[in-house]
Design goal:
- By secondary structure, the protein is an alpha+beta fold.
- It has a domain at 101-275.
- The chain contains 6 helices and 11 strands.
- The protein has helices at residues 8-13, 24-30, 37-75, 160-168, 254-257, 261-271; strands spanning 101-107, 110-116, 120-123, 127-131, 135-138, 144-156, 169-179, 190-198, 206-209, 232-239, 274-275.
- Strands 3, 4, 5, 6, 7, 8, 9 and 10 form an 8-stranded antiparallel sheet that branches. It has a 3-stranded antiparallel sheet with strand order 1-2-11.
- A hairpin with a 7-residue loop joins β8 (190-198) and β9 (206-209).
- The longest helix has 39 residues, at 37-75.
- The radius of gyration is 51 Å and the shape is elongated.
- The termini are far apart.
Length: 276
């Protein structure tokens, strides 16, 4: 029986439960338990925010770069590719601009003319030629002429060889009016410049002062024009030493024919004519 009784020593060594003091085991078990999921969710949200911000910044940067590149592309116009195929005689660089002129008076034909000093006037027995400085050009059939000139041919009364070219001339363009700068007494103030191709109208072989005749494309003057002794024959075109006849000229496209300094200076010479 004494075995079932606590000894006094054991009784006094037991922990004393004070009134109102919770049992330690119960207190521990009653403590709130923290979930391990919450920190992970917070970390994931932070990572998503960081990566989302970085992605938005990267997208904005790329957009700005693209806009800048597009603006630069718009501002810098592409340079046209240079053509390797030159078109001599199609620009105004064929002969120099006029810096000085001189005058000449001839007896056959009876006239006075002003021309640039770098052009050459030559008097024949019954005709006059006035030639530009030499330059290169390309003909209507793509022949390159390196030593060409623009030549004006003037005489009174057409010869048979002249009529051969005049008679074959077919107007390539409508005639254009030309006003003389200081016409002589009895000389008309205005005339017509016509442009002829040989036998067809898709090119220009020579220009011709046609007086009262204003022609349309396809018109002709006929082989008998200008044969009266007092009729002034005034013609011009692109020539070279290889051509022998006075009215034999290289065939040119209409655009090239009228585009050169040589052509424009030739018109100036014609305007200066005073015919007696």
């Amino acid at each position: 029986m004494e075995d079932n009784k606590q000894s006094d020593e054991e009784f006094f060594n037991e922990p004393l439960d004070l009134p109102g003091e919770p049992d330690t085991d119960d207190w521990v078990s009653s403590m709130p338990k923290r979930s391990w999921k919450r920190p992970i969710i917070i970390a994931v949200v932070i990572i998503l925010i960081v990566f989302g911000g970085f992605f938005a910044w990267q997208l904005l940067t790329d957009t700005n770069d693209t806009d800048t590149t597009d603006q630069a592309t718009e501002q810098v116009a592409p340079t046209p590719a240079a053509s390797n195929q030159a078109e001599p005689g199609a620009s105004e660089d064929d002969i120099p601009a006029v810096t000085s002129t001189e005058q000449a008076k001839t007896s056959s034909p009876r006239m006075e003319v002003t021309y640039p000093t770098n052009w050459t006037l030559t008097e024949g027995e019954d005709d006059v030629t006035i030639e530009s400085p030499a330059f290169g050009f390309t003909t209507a059939n793509n022949t390159v002429i390196d030593d060409g000139v623009f030549r004006l041919y003037l005489r009174q009364g057409a010869r048979e060889s002249d009529s051969n070219y005049i008679g074959r001339g077919v107007a390539s363009l409508a005639s254009e009016s030309l006003t003389y700068t200081d016409p002589a007494l009895g000389q008309r103030e205005d005339t017509n410049v016509s442009f002829f191709g040989l036998d067809r109208s898709d090119h220009i072989s020579f220009l011709f002062i046609a007086g009262n005749f204003s022609l349309s494309v396809g018109d002709t003057l006929g082989p008998d024009f200008g044969q009266a002794p007092d009729t002034y024959i005034i013609a011009g075109g692109y020539s070279s030493p290889a051509l022998e006849d006075d009215l034999e000229m290289h065939s040119m496209s209409p655009q090239v024919f009228q585009s050169t300094n040589a052509y424009k200076q030739a018109l100036g010479i014609i305007r200066s004519l005073r015919l007696f």
